[in-house]
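Q: Entry one of two.
A:
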Amino acid sequence: MLGKLIKHEFKHSARYVTAIYACTGAVLLVMLFALLVKITWLSVAASMILYFAGILVVVMTLVSVIKNFYDTLYTNQGYLSFTLPVKCSSLLASKVIVSFVWIILSVIALAVIYFIVYQNALAQTDGEIGTILDMLKDSGVLDMLPSGAAIAKLLVLIVVLLLLAILTFVGFVYFSVTLANTRLLQKHPKIFGFLIFFGSYAAANSIGAKLTYSLPMSFSVTGDGLKFAFASMESSESIFSFGIGGTIFMALVAVAMLFATGWIMEHKVNIK
């Protein structure tokens, strides 16, 4: 049943995000056309629009995730959703999984768009950016950076931290929207949802920031690679050091919020 819910959720939520990708794709085609016919000003203009479109893809995807969750559960559509012969936990899980996928795709799209913009910049400057990088390499500046193996491990870690950040966002948003649709708060669900989200996120983030610096769990990037140590970020001797205690704390809070969301959906939500 979860598989059917996920399939239906993808079909329903796709309408919120396909328009975003279609518009971005159109701008990309304009830029490629300008490159082929060598219209410099059009290519530069398209690159600038594409640069901001990449950010817009992520932002609009996040907005679409929130809107889809609210519309399908806490508007008139909620009657249909909550009368389905499935548990609320399965209903919530399908929405979490689909939202996770859409957000990841938006981040990938952002990375691809920026790579294309960078390549276009190289073409427009006749390789001047590449020349600058070669000069930095010859001067030895780039030798001060971590090794390729260390950077590869760092990228893997960044991906993991990004996934935890997405989980945190989804957990806080879904909890806030659901709590705002209980009997005491449902007269103004959007206002209360907004207040609950930013209030809870600010409080948890404040604690997380302190744990990031003080909790003895950190990674350091050195010439030898990426190293984990049971030491606080403050005590690290590497300038490329960052703590992960705060990120883990935020993710755990988000998971707890998702469990709380499922319980509220099952026992306390008042459908309009």
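Q: Entry two of two.
A:
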Amino acid sequence: MNYSGGEKLTRFIFSKRHFSVENKTVKYGAFMPPPNIADLSVFRISSLSESEVWEIGRRYVETEKRRLKARADLLIGDVYESNLEVVPDTQPHELHANITPFPIDRKERDRIARKLALASELVIIPPEET
């Protein structure tokens, strides 16, 4: 399924090492899928308010050990420019999707993750959402 290139995605971030508050940037590690996995979990958020986006993160992604710190927002068009697709995966939520297929080659994965991180916008979790 192809979505509009102007539709917005978000990648939830749980580690402070994946972003810089000072530089207002997302680091490429936020876009690295686990080794030997070709998919990267994201959510389609164009139709949502800020509080609804954070609610999805809290309810469907955050765990006791993985607390939300921030998120990286980007346009689907930036994913398409990296020759990747956004594929719906309605579990655990109807707006969940996967960016796929990430190459197996580590250097190529790094290159794509860096490109997506550069294209993304850092959004720090507001104090009232923590």
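A: Comment on entry two: The radius of gyration is 14 Å. The chain has three helices and eight strands.
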